[in-house]
Amino acid sequence: MKNLQQLLDVLLPVLGQEAVNLVQDELDELTGAAQEPWKKAILGLIADAVAEHGPEGVQIAINSIHEMLEGKVVALDWTDLETASDILAHLQNMEADHKTATREYVARVSQVLGTILAGLVKGFLAS
């Protein structure tokens, strides 16, 4: 939680208090809602993609998740075997209605992370 607060402190001068509060609420909801194993797997995959590819890793992971939901074979060579196996198992075993919920969750994660990354870029440009 300390890293999250540091991130929000960086975003504050760029986005303003109201926007930071909204981002914090969204992040709290996303991580709090990640009690289900498939949500943890999605967040883990996105974290690995960002660690490997930087900010563009968010979109790489999201594209990979969408392709897997469509039944396509996806190379997950940027993550470890355990994470890849975990996400594949969850996505392959989902029923159609659960896949819709997965797409909605991934869209929310993407939106929140996009807001954070955009704020960071603006902060770097302003400094």
Can you describe this structure?
- This protein is mainly α.
- It has one domain (39-127).
- It contains six helices and no strands.
- It has helices spanning 2-15, 17-32, 37-53, 57-69, 81-92, 96-126.
- α1 (2-15) crosses α6 (96-126), α3 (37-53) runs parallel beside α6 and α4 packs antiparallel against α6 (96-126).
- The two termini are 25 Å apart.
Give keywords.
globular; 6 helices; single chain
Question: What's this, in brief?
Answer:
The protein is 81% helix and 0% strand.
Structural class: mainly alpha
Tell me the domain tally.
1
Order of helices and strands: HHHHHH
Query: What is Rg?
Result: 15 Å
Distance between the termini: 25 Å
Main beta-sheet strand count, sense and barrel state? none
Number of strands: 0
Provide a count of the helices: 6
State the assembly state of the protein chains: single chain
Which overall shape is indicated by the principal axes computed on the Cα atoms? globular
Q: Into which percent range does the helicity of residues fall?
A: over 70%
Flag low-confidence runs: none
Average pLDDT works out at 78
Beta content comes to: under 5%
